[in-house]
């Protein structure tokens, strides 16, 4: 019989895909640089798993106690909103964000609020020294006797600290800086991050403590490390914000204990981070008079309606290829709306430079902001301001129709609360196709709500269509 030989296989650390030779890009998940060599015994082998003793006896699901999965308030209301009510004992939470966005400041605030409720908390820092964290704690008033601090980069030492301190919550800053001595690779590598995360999750489940890990992001905005890291934890949060603004948003992209795509708003200042209960004013400007090229959109961030101002500037282009520039808006969405305005509204901008942006660094991805962008473009083209105190919301289809958006009553209630006088919304889906003009005019909470079946009807309602422009030119020429 031929002696068994040892050959080398290559495995992707992201998804587990295997190949006989090394490649730079995984053939399954398309990740670059994730394929590593692993030794495998040659020849056909069979593995047989035998029965083993159980750790806990299986019981009917109705007899499983549910009191262990109750949310406990973190002391930061905006974070509790994102988490679905608070932190859950035994849960593993991953908070990811760009460098300098305020991840460490936020979690130090959460750790201090938890310690103030006489719940022992352990903050493990692998990126800064203990003195650096103490200086931040003094600046943000986060010093408490029940808040313990440890500067460690070894996984075994971190687990020992947890055994000795016995906290109710552990913050690890960050998971990419902690390394396991018995695992090959450098801290932050695929294998190391996976091992560290698995050990911390096991500790959280076995001791019924909450573990919050800070994660780095790549230049593309994804979480650094293996994709399995997001599968291991119970909650994945993204911390978003611009360096040019103090406004920050925490968004839930995975939550086993609450809703996803919920957001929390914060203000990052020199004295720490503070929750923003009503962030609408950050994304709108109060103009002294009517300004052409502006319109207010009502967008939904999770379950929260937010008002944001959309601005546009349309100028005749001196170049052969006009520019299309956006800030806070999707460039492909702008191109689609320009095509709809040309085809169905007669607004031809193929020889004009078009600039569109939002106020305050807001990012609008909700299709319900399409109508506000169309109104701003038409207003800038005709140099005619829309009526004062008007908001516009609705998704624009390629045939020029206005489609209903989700949570319309909540959007209208928020606009009425802030004192807006008129809202233009899509008509009822049962309205006959091709009908011109508003379908219905009604009053909601003191605000006039007008329904329009298509974008041309909405522009005519606001005196922003091509026919109105022609009438204005005739009047000006007569004068």
From TrEMBL:
The protein's matches in PROSITE patterns, at most eight in alphabetical order, are given as: RECA_2
Residue numbers covered by motif RadA KNRFG motif: 254-258
**The RecA family profile domain, residue ranges:** 68-217
**What CDD domains does this protein map onto?**
RadA_SMS_N
Q: Which domain of life is it from?
A: Bacteria
Lon-protease-like: where is this region?
353-479
Provide an example Pfam family for this protein: Zn_ribbon_LapB
| Record SUPFAM superfamilies | P-loop containing nucleoside triphosphate hydrolases (SSF52540), Ribosomal protein S5 domain 2-like (SSF54211)
* Alphabetical keyword list: ATP-binding, DNA damage, DNA repair, DNA-binding, Hydrolase, Metal-binding, Nucleotide-binding, Stress response, Zinc, Zinc-finger
Q: Does the keyword Nucleotide-binding apply?
A: yes
Detail which positions bind ATP. Answer: 97-104
Query: What task does this protein carry out?
Result: Plays a role in repairing double-strand DNA breaks, probably involving stabilizing or processing branched DNA or blocked replication forks. DNA-dependent ATPase involved in processing of recombination intermediates, plays a role in repairing DNA breaks. Stimulates the branch migration of RecA-mediated strand transfer reactions, allowing the 3' invading strand to extend heteroduplex DNA faster. Binds ssDNA in the presence of ADP but not other nucleotides, has ATPase activity that is stimulated by ssDNA and various branched DNA structures, but inhibited by SSB. Does not have RecA's homology-searching function.
Q: Which HAMAP family match?
A: RadA_bact
Q: Which family does it belong to?
A: Belongs to the RecA family. RadA subfamily.
> What PANTHER family is this protein classified in?
DNA REPAIR PROTEIN RADA, DNA REPAIR PROTEIN RADA-LIKE PROTEIN
Q: What is this protein called?
A: DNA repair protein RadA
The species is Nocardioides aromaticivorans
**Source lineage:** Bacteria, Bacillati, Actinomycetota, Actinomycetes, Propionibacteriales
Gene responsible for this protein: radA
């Amino acid at each position: 019989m031929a002696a068994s030989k040892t050959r080398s296989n290559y495995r992707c650390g992201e998804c587990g895909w295997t190949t006989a030779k090394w490649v730079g890009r995984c053939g399954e998940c398309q990740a670059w640089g994730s394929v590593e060599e692993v030794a495998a015994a040659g020849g056909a082998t069979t593995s047989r798993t035998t029965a083993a003793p159980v750790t806990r006896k299986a019981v009917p699901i109705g007899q499983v106690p549910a009191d262990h999965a109750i949310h406990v308030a973190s002391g930061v209301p905006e974070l509790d909103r994102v988490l679905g009510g608070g932190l859950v004992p035994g849960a593993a939470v991953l908070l990811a964000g760009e460098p300098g966005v305020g991840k460490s400041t936020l979690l130090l605030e959460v750790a201090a609020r938890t310690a103030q409720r006489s719940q022992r908390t352990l903050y493990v820092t692998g990126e800064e020294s203990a003195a650096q964290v103490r200086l931040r704690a003094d600046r943000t008033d986060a010093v408490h006797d029940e808040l313990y601090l440890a500067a460690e980069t070894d996984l075994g030492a971190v687990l020992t600290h947890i055994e000795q301190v016995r906290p109710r919550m552990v913050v690890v800053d960050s998971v990419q800086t902690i390394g396991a001595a018995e695992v090959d690779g450098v801290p932050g590598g695929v294998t190391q991050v996976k091992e560290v995360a698995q050990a911390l999750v096991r500790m959280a489940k076995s001791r019924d403590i909450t573990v919050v890990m800070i994660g780095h992001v790549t230049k593309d905005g994804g979480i650094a490390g293996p994709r399995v890291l997001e599968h291991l934890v119970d909650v994945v949060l993204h911390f978003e914000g611009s360096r040019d603004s103090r406004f920050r948003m925490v968004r839930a992209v995975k939550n086993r204990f609450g809703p996803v795509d919920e957001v929390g708003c914060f203000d990052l200042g020199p004295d720490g981070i503070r929750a923003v209960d009503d962030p609408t004013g950050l994304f709108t400007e109060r103009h002294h008079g009517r300004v052409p090229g502006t319109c207010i959109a009502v967008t939904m961030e999770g379950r929260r309606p937010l008002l944001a101002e959309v601005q546009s500037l349309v100028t005749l282009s001196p170049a052969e290829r006009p520019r299309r520039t956006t800030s806070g808006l999707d460039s492909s969405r702008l191109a689609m709306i320009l095509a709809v305005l040309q085809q169905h509204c007669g607004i031809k901008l193929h020889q004009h430079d078009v600039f569109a942006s939002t106020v305050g660094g807001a990012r609008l991805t909700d299709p319900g902001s399409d109508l506000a962008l169309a109104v701003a473009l038409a207003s800038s083209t005709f140099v005619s301001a829309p009526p004062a105190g008007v908001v516009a919301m609705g998704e624009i289809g390629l045939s020029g129709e206005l489609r209903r958006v989700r949570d319309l009553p909540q959007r209208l209630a928020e606009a009425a609360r802030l004192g807006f006088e008129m809202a233009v919304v899509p008509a009822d889906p049962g309205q006959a196709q091709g009908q011109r003009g508003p379908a219905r005019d009604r009053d909601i909470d003191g605000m006039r709500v007008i329904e329009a079946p298509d974008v041309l009807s909405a522009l005519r309602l606001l005196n922003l269509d091509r026919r109105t422009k022609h009438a204005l030119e005739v009047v000006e020429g007569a004068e």
